[in-house]
Structure formats: structure tokens, C-alpha cells
Amino acid sequence: MSTVSYWLKEPHDGLPSSRFDGRPEAAVIGGGVTGCSCALTLAGHGVKVRLYEQRTVAGGASGRNGGFALRGAAAPYDEARRDLGDERARLLMELTERSLDRIEELAGDAFRRVGSLRLAADDDERDALRREHDALREHGFAVEWLDDLDPPLDRMYRGAILHPRDGALHPARWVRRLAAQAARAGADIREGERMTVEAADADVVVVAGDGYLPSLLPEVPVHPWRGQVLATEPLRERLYDRPHYARLGYDYWQQLPDGRLVIGGNRDASLETEQTDVEETTELVQGRLDALVERLVGYRPAVTDRWAGIWGATPDLVPVVGEIRDGVWVAGGYSGHGNALGLACGELVARAVLDQRPPELDLFAPARFTAV
Ligand SMILES: Cc1cc2nc3c(=O)[nH]c(=O)nc-3n(C[C@H](O)[C@H](O)[C@H](O)COP(=O)(O)OP(=O)(O)OC[C@H]3O[C@@H](n4cnc5c(N)ncnc54)[C@H](O)[C@@H]3O)c2cc1C
To answer: What domains appear along the chain, each with residue ranges and CATH number?
Structure first.
């Protein structure tokens, strides 16, 4: 049975209407952060754009995620430097830092720029975080090393990196706001309308599907993963003032301003079954999340919501943005880090459609998967 996230239950005003009749110049498939960002950029440049979302805006991963707004891509910065080279790793990091600035500009109270804390669960992870810390420092990016953690983290973890410029999102509120801005700029946003690449009648089609890409554009090497999350009742005490994550991101949580804990991950409890596009929770993973809540809080608060979402991963964990077939473009494959990257890549794909050549596009070229 499909699930609804805590975030998506927030009442909202709906979108301003900007429907137009007739054929659009550009069709965008997918009403998450990527599609809305792309539609906003295209409409802002006077393009007649129509966005199709089969459910509601933010109904996919964009309204179901953990709400971590992190710089960088899925790989740690030291590994990105090794795999992409210094110059390209720096370009990617700077792109996402600018994206966080842009979220801060556009999101209002859906974004709190409180930093994020990446914790080390054991000595190996501590060494890995130390390497990432040093690699960031060497390139002049703000980062702090913490040896002393507050209880109960001091008993559970062995140091942490503070990323001071990251933040916490209410992701559905944020993406609904982004969609409203796209509509106000002139984008025709059609909720409840399913579309295919073949049926979209427009000069240009942009597929903004992330975890849904396999069904929309099977030639793009993006694979679906399921993420599971829960939200508790408001806790009596304020324990966590920023998003926290550990064990390579397999554990992540944030405490919301009203005190509730949103906690997700633990896909490593069953990697084989979590590699799926079925948007359902499982007892195994949810049971692990319950146990983590107890360790983090000291008791078992009531759980008010449990949900799942689907995100898309590429083989090298770097997104794919570019033209796939004549007039058919793609942006997605954020490999679990789509909040800042989705905003950035939606804008990048729009700028590419507009025939601009932002240098960051080369980082995400689809051709890297076919090049010999
Ligand atoms: C549980 C979970 C936790 C996560 N946590 C984080 C996090 O804390 N930080 C972070 O940075 N990233 C996180 N991510 C990843 C991030 O949420 C995604 O990468 C990002 O939201 C992708 O945005 P998108 O717009 O590309 O795709 P989506 O938000 O998935 O939007 C794609 C949309 O396309 C629609 N669609 C599909 N097919 C069709 C069709 N045929 N016609 C019309 N519409 C269609 C879908 O309904 C969907 O709404 C998480 C993901 C999940 C699932």
C-alpha cells in the first residue's frame, strides 16, 4: 500500500493558476524539485512551458525525503576529488553551495540554515570523515571537526564533521512554494496528469523523474532505491538542533521546530529488497528505525507517520543532465542527494535547453556512460 509523508499532510493553498491552451514549446514531466526548478527557469525566460505531474507537486521523493539540504553530491569530497579531479570536484561543490543560497532566497520558512552534523559510528568512519574534512579544508570550504559530542551522541559516535552552511528543509512546503513561483512566472502546471515522452507534444521534452526515470527513459542508467522514514510525536525535550547523519548516511534524523523527530534510512537492513520502486514501508526497516529512535531519545515516543519514497542512483553517484534523444532532455540520478542538486540541475537543464552552456553541465554529461 502506498504511503503519505508527514510533510505532504501539511495543509496548503494550492497553486496559482496559469493554464494556457494549445501546444507548449516545452513539456516537463515530473513535479518535484527538478521539474519545478526547470519550469521556473524556462518560464522566466519567456518559454511557453507545461509541467505534467501524475500525482501532486512534491508527491514523489521531493515531498517524502529526510529534509537534509546538503552541499556536494553523494560521494564524500575526498572521493569526489579522486574520481572527478580537483577542478571538477570543486565546481560541483560550488554549484551546490550556490544552490543552498538560492534555496535560502526562495524557500522562506521552509528552510532553516542550521548546518548539518555528519557523525562517525566507528574508527573507520572517523578516519573517513577526517579525510573528507581535510579535503574540504584544503580547498577552502567551511567545515569544522568535533571531538566532543553531547549526550547521548558521545556514547554512540566517535567524532563528527559540522557542515555549517547546510540546512534543514520542510521539503513539501519548499517544493510547493517553488511550484507556485514557477506558476506565477507563467508555467502551466498540471497536477494529476500522467505523461510519457512519446505523447508529450512539444518542441522540447524535459524528463525530471529521478527514481521514476527507469519507466520514463529506460536508456538512462538510473536505478530506483526505496527510502523509508518515520515521524514521531513532538518530544518533550529539544535534543537535536540540526540534521544529523551517520553510518554513510544509512541513519539520518532531524528534530523539527515543534519537537517531533523525523528519522529515516536503515536501507542496509535489506539492500536487496530496498532496491525497488515499490513505495511501501516494511516491518524490518521500520523496526530498525524504531530501535534507533529509542537509542537517540532514551524512550519510545509515539510514531505518527511512516512512509516510503523512491530516489534514483547512477552507477557513479553523479547526476545525469543533458540531451538523451533529439529534443528529449533529462535531469536526475542524484543518488540520494537531490535537494540542493535537484534545484541546481533543474536550472542547468533549462539553461541547456535555452542554448546556454553553463560549465557545470559537463560534470553531468549522459555521454560518460556510453563513452568508450
Ligand atoms: C526517503 C527519501 C529520503 C531522502 N532524503 C534526502 C535528503 O535528506 N536530502 C537530499 O538531498 N535528498 C534526499 N533524498 C533524495 C531526494 O528526495 C530526491 O533526489 C529529489 O527529491 C528528486 O527530485 P526530483 O524532482 O528529481 O524527483 P521527484 O521528486 O521524485 O519527482 C518526480 C515526479 O515525477 C512524477 N512522475 C513520474 N512519472 C510520471 C509521469 N509518467 N507523468 C507525470 N509525472 C510523473 C512523480 O509522481 C514525481 O512526483 C531522499 C529521497 C527519499 C525517497
So the answer is: 7-65+171-220+316-369 (3.50.50.60), 115-164+223-313 (3.30.9.10)
